[in-house]
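Long-time lurker. I teach an intro course on protein structure, and each term I like to show students one example going from raw sequence to a predicted 3D structure in C-alpha cell notation. This year I'd like something fresh instead of my usual example. Would anyone be willing to generate the C-alpha cells for the chain below so I can use it in lecture? Attribution to the forum is fine with me.
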Amino acid sequence: MNPLLLQQDGGVHTTRPHPARDAPQSTGARIMAAVNREPMTAPHRHRNDALIALGALAVSVLLGFVTRDGRAPDAVGWVLLVASGLPVAVRRRHPLLALCAFIAIVLPYHLLDYTHTASMPQTVILLYTVAATGRPLRTLVVGAGLISLLLTVVFGFDSEQGLELLRISGWIIAVLVFGVDARYYRGYVAAIVERAVRAERTREEEAARRVAEERLRIARDLHDLLAHSITLIGVQTSVAAHILAVDPDRLDRAAIGRALDDISGTCRSARGELRATLEVLRAGESARTGEQQPPAAGGPLPGLDGLTDLAAAARSAGARVDLVVETRSPPPAVGAAVYRIVQESLTNAVRHGGSSVAVEIGVREERHALSVSVHDDGGTGAPEPAGAPGYGLVGMRERARSVGGTLDAGPRDGGGFSVRAVLPLQLPVGFGGSGGAVGSAESEGAAGSEGAAESRGAAGPAGEESS
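-- Reply from a regular --
Happy to contribute to a lecture. Here you go:
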C-alpha cells in the first residue's frame, strides 16, 4: 500500500496536496470564476450591486449629456434618471420587484421625451438579471409583458414612436436570451464542478477503503501466523516443563531435547512464513509503485502442500492428527484459504484441548466444490487459561467468503469442536487474491462486532477462541 495513503492524523485519512488546486489563480482565472459563479449566492453580491448601480448611473449621466435622441433632461429628468439607478442596487435581492420599480420610474422619463438612450445601462442590467436568475418561463412572461406594456403605452401617445419602439424591441429579446444562455452555462459549469468534486471524493473514499482492507489483510495474516506458532511453542514448552517437573532426579534428556528441537523448528517455520508474507506485501507495493525488489527467497505462501507440515507441527506438540487430502490442485487463492482455515482450526484445537487432543482433517472434492472439515475430540489435557475472545472464527469465515465459499463452526454432540467449509474449485468473478492474503469486503468494524459472539467459548464449553 502506498505509504502516502496510510498517513493518519488522529484517525482521519489525509491526502497529498493538489498542486493545480492549491496554486494561486491568475487574473483570467479569477474573471472566469466570477463569471461562472452563481449570482444569487456570490460573495459580496450586495456590495458589488451597489458599485454596479453607481457605475451604471455614471454612464447614464454621461449619455444624458452627449446624446440627442430626445430633449435634454431638466431637473425632473435628472431626478428620474438618477432614481432609475436605485433598483439596480437591489437587483439580486428582488429581481422582479427591482424591474417593476425601474419601469415605474423610467416610464414617465420616456413619456416626457427625455434622452431615451440615457437609461439604457440600467435597462440592460435589470433585464439580464431577471433572465439569469429565474426560470425560462418567467423570463418569457416578463419579456412578452414588458414589450406589450411599452407598445401599448407608446402607441397611445404617438403611433410613430410606437412603430420605432417595435422596430428596436429586438434588443430586449436579445438581452433576455443572453441572460437565459448565461444561466444555462452556469448550470453546466456547476454540474461539471460537482462531478469533479464527487469524483475526487470517490477517489479519496476508495483510497481509505483500500487502506482499511490492507490493514485488515495484514492483521489477519499475522494473526494466523503468530497465533499458530505461539500456541505450538507454548504447548511444547509445557511438555518440556512437565518432563522436568515429574522426576527432577531422572532427567529424560532425549525427550527434553526433542521438545526443544520442536520449539526451534516451529520458530524457524514461523520466521520463514512471516518472511514470505512480508515479501508478498512488498511485492504488491512494488507492483503499484514500479520499484524493483529482489526476488522473494521464501516463495509464495503455502497452500494444500503445506497441510502436511501443519499436521507434523501439531503432532510434535503431542496432538494426534489424521490428515486426508483427496483433491486436485485448486486455484492458489482457494488453496491459501484452505491452509489458513486448517491452521486456525489446529491452533484452536491444541490450545483448548491440550497436547493430547485428537484431530481429524479432511480435504475432499464434493459436487464440483472443495469440502474442508476439521474435527477434534476436545482433548483430555489441560487447556490454556481462558482469555479475551478473539477473531479466529471471524477470520476463518472471512477467508471462506473472500473466495466465494461458506464456513460453519460449532461444538460437536459427543464433545469437541467441528469446523466445516465449502469452497469453490473455480473462483467466481471478483473473488480471490494472491498468496493467501486475500482481500475481504468485510470492514474492520464488522469483524470487531462479531468477535465476541463468534468466540469458541460462546459456542461451547471448550473455552475461549484464540486471539
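Some talking points for your students: Residues 1-22, 292-299, 433-455, 457-467 have pLDDT under 50 and may be disordered. The chain is about 60% helix and 10% strand.
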